[in-house]
Design brief:
247 residues; mainly alpha; 0% strand
């Protein structure tokens, strides 16, 4: 029989110096990543978002966890699609497995969780709602409104006047956060594209020099082939330029 929720949360909070009150909070993926970091010490905690609040952030955390499992040959499937929904039973079962794995593999060495995550905030909400609250069912409304006290009635004049404003504010906050995330991704894309472009130019120049000397370099040819290779769905249409010119 597995350990109880209370025991698991007490162990998790003590190990990671966090303040989780519900097993469902583990569905963000951050705590799972840091438990594995306490064992192996090589999880890129700077990339783990411990205060994740949206499903796309949860999924990013779980990708880091899966990479850790692959690197250390941990033969355990990670049911990401279920865990990110932040349901109690799914996360309880996975947390029980994580605890058993930790008991078996933790070396007893000192671990500073705050330093490893560089003091990053861990204020995951006690009631997780990875997607915007749905107005279609009373259960979802109750779950989404728990942060505001959980006592606002589903029906009545007051709920009609306050809930829409709160929903709009939540959506606006999510939109701002997603825009910030998108800007970061675009900067990262441009950074790596610029590096690839520099490599392409260097390879091209060197091949031109070798061609003039009637020489060749198979390694440079292979690099150039990789740079110019495409995948299904990413090819540039052959007639794209012609269509614009003949308009």
């Amino acid at each position: 029989m597995g350990e109880s929720r209370t025991e698991l949360l007490a162990w998790l909070n003590d190990l990671l110096q966090i303040n989780y009150t519900k097993v469902e909070q583990c569905g963000t993926g951050g705590a799972y990543c840091q438990v594995m970091d306490s064992i192996f010490g090589d999880v890129p905690m700077a990339r783990v978002k411990m205060n994740a609040k949206h499903e796309y952030e949860f999924i990013a955390n779980f990708k880091i966890l899966q990479n850790c499992f692959r690197h250390h040959k941990v033969e355990k499937p990670v049911p990401v699609d279920r865990l990110v929904k932040c349901k109690m039973q799914d996360n309880l079962e996975f947390l029980q497995w994580i605890k058993r794995f930790w008991d078996t593999n933790y070396g007893g060495n000192g671990y500073d969780p705050v330093a490893r995550r560089r003091g990053a905030p861990t204020d995951t909400p006690a009631t997780i709602a990875p997607l915007a609250p749905s107005r279609g069912s009373g259960g979802n409304l109750h779950a989404g409104g728990a942060r505001a006290g959980g006592r606002t009635p589903i029906t009545g004049h007051r709920s009609a006047s306050t809930q829409p404003n709160e929903a709009v504010q939540n959506l606006q906050a999510q939109l701002r956060e997603m825009n910030t995330h998108l800007e970061g991704l675009e900067k990262e894309r441009d950074f790596y594209f610029a590096k690839l472009r520099d490599i392409e130019i260097l390879v091209q120049q060197q091949l031109e020099v070798l061609t003039a000397e009637e020489k060749d370099d198979p390694v440079l040819r292979d690099i150039q082939k990789i740079l110019y290779s495409t995948e299904d769905g990413f090819e540039v249409p052959d007639q794209a330029v012609d269509e614009e010119e003949t308009f």
